What we know:
The protein has a single domain (15-188), classed as Four Helix Bundle (Hemerythrin (Met), subunit A) (Up-down Bundle). 74% of the residues lie in helices and 0% in strands. It contains six helices and no strands. It has helices at residues 15-35, 39-62, 68-91, 97-121, 132-151, 156-188. Mean pLDDT is 89; it is low at 1-8.
Amino acid sequence: MQGRQVTWRDFRLTLADALTGARLVMLPYLIYALARPLPDLAVGTLAVMIGTDLVDGRIARALGQSREFGGAFDSTVDFVVIYGIFTAFLAVGVLPWWKWAVIVLPALLMAWTQYVQVRQAGDVVFAPARAGKIVGQIQFVYLPFLLLRRFWLGAGWALTVDHVLFVLLALAIVFNTIDYARILRRLLARPGTPGATP
């Protein structure tokens, strides 16, 4: 039997929220493990982070605790964690600055679009983009691969695979960025929006 529905205004911590928040708590441990370097800690931490991301939404639905705030919280934590990890890989020399820029800089447009969306909606409701899930899925493959490259994969073929994964991710990011640019343009065109054209 499902529990009662929880609204976004109900800030009581659910089990799914705790699992989501745990990823944020684990991020410094992963960064530390990458920098030291401590391969076992890095692999274990990333595995647990991915595991919590795979189950938190299912648990929320199973317990009848799905709500817009939970989805927005999950997306926000994922945003911070994913781009934080990419930045850590830049810092330890696994990810060149130009790849980092291609991956991370377009995310600023996404963040700005979501900010405008939330301001307009007056609620924690994010605007989805069609290519967003594809970007996320490629990131789920690319991040563990970069972890393997950090500790174990130094051969030339690994760099080739890295480039292939990066190109796939970059293409998905291009479509995602175009989508978010259209969404932001539509949001800013609405009357009463700060900065909107009259």
